[in-house]
Amino acid sequence: MAYDENLADKVRESLVHLPDVYEKAMFGGLCFMVDGKMCICVRNTELMCRVGTDEAETALERNGARQMVHGGRTMKGYVYVEDTGHTKPSDFNYWINACLKYNKVAKSSKK
């Protein structure tokens, strides 16, 4: 499991105010689960953001963003963001807020 510990700490700090957050190793990185649902992950120096299909098109237009492909499958509603797309505080906050917004309506995965 490879992920940037500083970036993971930054995500932790941004989610600390929420009551139901835990971390889980997934996708070769560290995922942050909010209310029992995958919200945002850190893999290497990238963010993997679950923004939902409605926001994905807009999100993909942002600097450093690309469609998530996992195991040869395009993952709709998921976006990878390389470090150039989340280093500025305003960009980082956009991704956190987009993930939290979608998390409110996202369905939990089957256990």
From TrEMBL:
Segments forming domain TfoX N-terminal: 15-101
Annotated Pfam families: TfoX_N
Protein name, as recorded: TfoX/Sxy family protein
Source organism per UniProt: Mucilaginibacter litoreus
